[in-house]
Amino acid sequence: MTEADFNFLRLLLHLRSGLSLSPEKRYLAESRLGILCRRRGIDGLATLVQMLRPGTDAALENAVIEAMTTNETLFFRDQTPFELFRNVILPERLALNAATRSLRIWCAAVSTGQEAYSVAMILDEMAPRLAGWKVQIVGTDISGEVLERARDGIYSQFEIQRGLPIQMLLKHFQQNGDKWQVSERLRAMVELKRHNLLEPSGHLGQFDVIFCRNVLIYFDLPTKAKAFEAIAPRLAPQGAVLLGAAETVVGISTVIVPDRQHRGIFRSRDCIQAQPAAISLPVEPVRAAGGSRF
Question: Among 235, 242, 236, which Cα is nearest to 259's?
Answer without folding.
Answer: 242
